[in-house]
Amino acid sequence: MRSWPVEGLGGPSTRAIRFNKSNTQSFARTMPQTIDTAESQVSTFSRPDRHTLSIRTKNEPGVLMRICQVFARRGFNIDSLVVAESRDSNFARMTIGMTGAPEGLEQIIKQVNKLIDVIHCFEHTSDDSVSKEMVMAKFLVPKEERTDAINIIEHFDGKTIDLTHTSIIAMIIGESAIIDSAIEMLSQFEIIETVRTGQVVMARGELET
Q1: Bridge partners of 96?
Q2: CATH says 127-203 is which class?
Q3: Which residues partner with 167 through β-bridges?
Q4: What is the pLDDT at residue 146?
């Protein structure tokens, strides 16, 4: 029996996953060493200076460009961007995942909030919100290793959405750190391509996102 980090409401936790005798040895030979120690488990699920902003705006042309200009001037890189109409079609909701020094984050939030078409801009953390994203990963897998690949997908509560004699397309939904770890685990096979949606976020309880 061996355990790996999995998603929980309070952050990564562990779940035991059992393999049958026929595939345990082959899986162990291909298992990355990065998950063998507690220190490496933490590094797998953490990325420094990652921030998540939720921005509510008027649903008008040019708003996204003006917001992106604020980020560019401050030297923040946008890692993911999800934009969609809100329940009221006159407004839109943006979720921006970004990487950068925390010292400039407060100024970015202030400047975005000053834009005429912005209703509000908040930073969210795992303490006050729930975030998810989806990834689809297509990879080549020999027939004799297919069971190992499916075990990894199921470990991350994913689904096999396409299966051929030589390839698998997996779909996994979770927090960004979980998605990162799933892709790392699947990289022992030959990954052809991955497509990520970017994360969406919602505030916990009665707080406004």
Answers
A1: 53, 81
A2: alpha beta
A3: 140
A4: 94
